[in-house]
Amino acid sequence: MAVIASALCLTAIFAGYVARIGVPVSPQEFFWFSMGVTALVAFPLAVVAAQYCYRLAQYRASLEAFASTDSLTGLLNRLYFEYAAEDERMRMGENNTQGAIAVFKLNDFKTFNEAYGHDAGDVVLKAVAEIAFNELRGPFDKLARRGGAEFLILLSNLTLEQAIGVCERIAQRITNTRFQLDGQRLDVSTCFGVAHFMPDSDIGDVIVEADSALTEAERMGPNRVYSSIGPGNRVRLVLVN
Fold this sequence. Notes:
By secondary structure, the chain is an alpha+beta fold. It is built from seven helices and eight strands, in the order H-H-H-E-H-H-E-E-H-E-E-E-H-E-E.
């Protein structure tokens, strides 16, 4: 609208100047002359304005993506994962549902990087992120890279038993994937900690509980999924075959 208003003002000034010197000589000619000048002025201005708005929208989208995602894997980062978890907690309260938050990590990944290099480690991290993402339910579940070789999963509208099953599938897929470097097979193992997520849960407390479960899983050995119900009341250890 600002572009159109500016064009009309310029047209009126220009048309008034032309009319003052005697061209055009009739009201009809003056009208069509004004419309022609308006079109000539407004169209290029509108094109420039549209390009500017498009570039501005792209720039804002890029900034938002940069702020919300992990640059290596393209997953959510920790901050936006917590935003998503808070949104899910509010929906659970409205719909009387439940879910789970899982923390998982690749075992001995520092040793892996030292042995094979960080480039190989980055390739494995991206592959693991893709494997885990493909096991989740599109827009309903959320996956984030916490940092290093640790990941966060938000599982919505599931019981704890169902959430354990999802983590088992992801662990099994990662274990069965043939990672190779120069023809040499690379063995990658994981551990999972799973915590119950309820509408009245504190997100920070649930993540801490999942971390505690992950510590127990790591203590028991590779490829373990350890789950919990409530602080300090862990109830099930699952061995991934």
